[in-house]
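Field reference: sequence -> structure
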Amino acid sequence: VLGAAINVYANKHKERPDRLIDMLISSHRKVLACVVCGRLKSAFQIASRSGSVADVEYVAHQASVANALPVVDMCRQWLSKYKFGV
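Structure field:
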């Protein structure tokens, strides 16, 4: 329900619903909410802190679609370190 509220709020008001996102417990849901709001760097930070390869890959894909190349690079660097255990 909170995720739907964030989506509606972000689309209707064109503002960042930071407080609503902070209320989410699941890191995955926070990542999804940040992506919906266009906060790709924040989404990456949350995904990488939680250690979720799937979420970082999702953020990388969304950043690529949005042509947010710095975020794509951050995701790729994190994924390469994670996969090679550096």
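Note: The mean pLDDT is 85.
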